[in-house]
Design a protein that fits this description.
With 267 residues, the chain is α/β, with parallel strands linked by helices. The chain contains eight helices and ten strands.
Length: 267
């Protein structure tokens, strides 16, 4: 991640996909923060803040007496988040490369990270900095995939399945790890973190509900890039479009998202 560009892009179409994703996953995020004991007045670090959707929610939760610092690689997303954050003095958005830039020299009560570590070529630098900077008692909440290959449209949507395989391959080719949460608990305990809970999070969607719209949007927005990379074909894309159209009319069809695992840990 040497530049501020992303594998999935930062254009307006991707921004709207992220907004839909945020709305869908916000209830799970809030439950995670509650389980971690987030309270008003606390100091929160948001790693990979994107366009600031979650950082804004966290800033409302900690209130004016708290602080939220969002670190984000993309200059376009930092600008969007700063515009949305006007009037919230407790929220700061900062352009930051998690693999290269020095860790913020301040204390935090809670660190939040979702769908960021899976894209990093190197985990050790960031995890080492977290372990060195966080004070005893600081909490860490991570939502990352543990089983990407559970993604699919059922029954028998082979075109969509081929998209899932191509997406998985693209993440690996870019140096990431779409199943990074298989490694994270061990890497954290090696650095002195206590694992408080591991919780699987799976979403299933039907007939145009939020989950179905989120996963279908991912296929339609990322598919052209996979074709450009030579990992997917026009024929497979056409088959996937037909399968998704048929699923909108089939009361028995359903989507399954890639399986997320929640890690709650304490320094």
């Amino acid at each position: 991640m040497a530049s501020d560009t992303y594998l999935l892009g930062t254009d307006p179409i991707e921004l709207e996909r992220l907004r839909l994703q945020h709305q869908l996953w916000l209830p799970e995020a809030r439950l995670a923060w509650q389980r971690a004991g987030l309270t008003p007045g606390e100091r929160v670090l948001d790693l990979g803040a994107g366009p600031g959707f979650v950082a804004l929610e966290l800033a409302q939760d900690v209130g004016p007496a708290g602080r939220v610092l969002g670190l984000e690689l993309s200059a376009a997303y930092v600008d969007a988040a700063r515009t949305a954050a006007k009037g919230l003095g407790q929220l700061e958005l900062r352009q930051h490369d998690l693999c290269r830039d020095p860790f913020p020299q301040e204390s935090f009560d809670l660190v939040w990270c979702r769908w960021v570590l899976m894209f990093l070529r190197e985990l050790d630098p960031l995890l080492d900095r977290l372990a060195a900077q966080l004070q005893p008692g600081a909490r860490l909440v991570i939502h990352e995939y543990i089983h990407w290959s559970s993604f699919g449209l059922h029954p028998d949507a082979e075109g969509v399945a081929s998209f899932g395989r191509a997406a998985h391959a693209s993440f690996l080719a870019a140096g990431g790890d779409p199943d990074v949460n298989r490694r994270l608990p061990s890497l954290l305990t090696q650095r002195g973190f206590r694992i408080d809970e591991l919780r699987p999070l799976t979403v299933v969607g039907r007939l145009g509900d939020g989950v179905a719209r989120w996963l279908e949007r991912f296929v339609t927005t990322y598919g052209p890039e996979l074709i450009r990379q030579g990992l997917w074909s026009d024929g497979e894309a056409g088959r996937a479009r037909a399968e998704m159209a048929a699923a909108r009319q089939d009361r028995g069809a359903f989507w399954v998202g890639p399986t997320v695992m929640e890690i709650r840990a304490t320094r």
